[in-house]
Amino acid sequence: MWLKLTILALLLAILVSLFSGLFFLVKDTGGQSRLVTALSVRIALTVATMLLIAYGFWSGQFTWNTPWLH
C-alpha cells in the first residue's frame, strides 16, 4: 500500500513540476535556469517513479491482471 501511495505522490509532484515549468516558460523573462531546473526535477521524479514501478513488479506487489496472461 505504501508503494502505491508513494507512486501517486510522485505523479502529483511531476504534475506540479510540469506546471511550474510552464509558468517559468511563459512568465520568466530572465534567464532560463529555473526552466532547466524544473525540467531536471521532472526527469528525476519520472525516473524515480519508473524505478518504483519496476520494484513493485519485481517484488510481486504489482501483478498483471489481464485475462490473456493467465
What share of the residues does DSSP label as strand, in percent?
A: under 5%
Order of helices and strands: HH
Overall 3D geometry? elongated
On the 0 to 100 scale, the average pLDDT is 91
Share in helix: over 70%
User: What structural class results from the helix and strand content?
Assistant: mainly alpha
Number of strands: 0
What is the radius of gyration computed over CA atoms, rounded to a whole number of angstroms? 16 Å
What is the count of distinct domains? Answer: 1
Q: In this structure, how is the largest beta sheet organized?
A: none
Low-confidence residue ranges? none
In quaternary terms, these chains amount to single chain
How many helices? 2
Distance between the termini: 24 Å
Blueprint of the fold:
Layout: H1 2-27, H2 33-59
Helix pairs in contact: 1-2
Commentary on this structure:
- The protein is mostly helical and 70 residues long.
- The chain has one domain.
- Helices cover 76% and strands 0% of the residues.
- It contains 2 helices and no strands.
- The chain has helices spanning 2-27, 33-59.
- It is elongated.
- It starts with a helix and ends in an 11-residue tail after the last helix.
- The mean pLDDT is 91.
